[in-house]
UniProtKB/TrEMBL annotation:
This is Cytochrome P450. It comes from Streptomyces olivochromogenes. The keyword Oxidoreductase applies. The keyword Oxidoreductase applies. GO terms for molecular function: heme binding; iron ion binding; monooxygenase activity; oxidoreductase activity, acting on paired donors, with incorporation or reduction of molecular oxygen.
Amino acid sequence: MDTSPGTPHRMDPAGGCPHADNARLLERGAVAAVVLPGEVEGMAVLGHEALKEFLAHPEVAKGAEHFTELREGRIAPGWPLATFATVRGMTTADGEDHRRLRSLVSKAFTARRVEELRPRIEELTAGLLDDLRAAAERDGGVADLRRHFAMPLPMGVIGELLGVDAEHRDRLHHLSNQVVATDIGPEKALAANRELVAVLAAVAVARGERPGDDLTSALIAARDEEGDRLSQEELIGTLVLMIIAGHETTLNLLTNAVRALCGHRDQLELVMKGEGGVGWADVVEETLRWDAPVSYFPFRYPVRDLTVDGTVIPKGTPVLAGYSAAGRDPSVHGPDADRFDVTRPGRSGATRHLSLGHGAHYCLGAPLARMEATIALERLFTRFPDLDLAVTEAELSRHSSFVGNSVRALPVRLGTSHG
């Protein structure tokens, strides 16, 4: 990679491990010019403090009308990142629209509602651990932890929250994977988006005919109320965002945490013994910092030319939030920022990382993701304390995306089962 000053960094559509490139870019500064797929010029904010400022800046917008090239018709149909810019929902809304959409969903994520989900998450986790052991027994002692545990847990939880029947969930996972891929061709991108919308529209029809105690039914009621609280396009857009954000992030978080602990057995031992007050919640926070489940999140747009950490970001530029880079920014996390350390000082999520966002668009599902991951990791390693990777880290195949940050599969040997 050319790191000479002013040379834009070409984002690799095939994804891969982001950390080496992030370190080189951070040496140049907290903000970098980038080239996105399709030769679209953009910027990335990488430094922790710069990103914190940018995410909460009052003159930074999320609405696609602020994306100059898109507004002027210079983005080709089937652009792989189009959904991030154009889906109608909270992540592309500003001001009053954002507050309206967020308020409709936020009731499902209050501290009380999340805590009420704990017994169900524990029940799902126990069943999936049985499934994981059965999968390993069928395949010579090796099972794909991502497929049999890390994916179905958050998909099961968000599926139940949204009222999505179980038969749709594998397909929705496949389609959401394609939507977040950055190396996908225009025809596949358009087809994946069309099918994802169609499946979720069918879910909405089913919930409209048979309302239940789920978020989709509540959103449909809001759509049908007088006062136009929610349009049909916003309803489907919200479901798209909830499915993707509601399981992809936690799936990557769990996968990355297991990889980190298997590669740092001393840290795992500390947590298993509970030494120094270190617990599973600390593993979750350190994983979020050290190997953020979302590497570069699209998009935000300055509504005027904006100077961030000495670099001008021109009005209307699509900007990536560089969460994986900020998590290892040595100016904030010290010279050992690239070391996985569950005992790291300042272990609360607010001070440790920005990986779940910051400001008005802070992740609504953060408490749920933290609870799911904490329960899942504790139960997994309590049941299988000798669990380890069945291949080397170098043999793991990475996601085809610079948005999601993880691996495609995680083959593990479970070792002795306790229970």
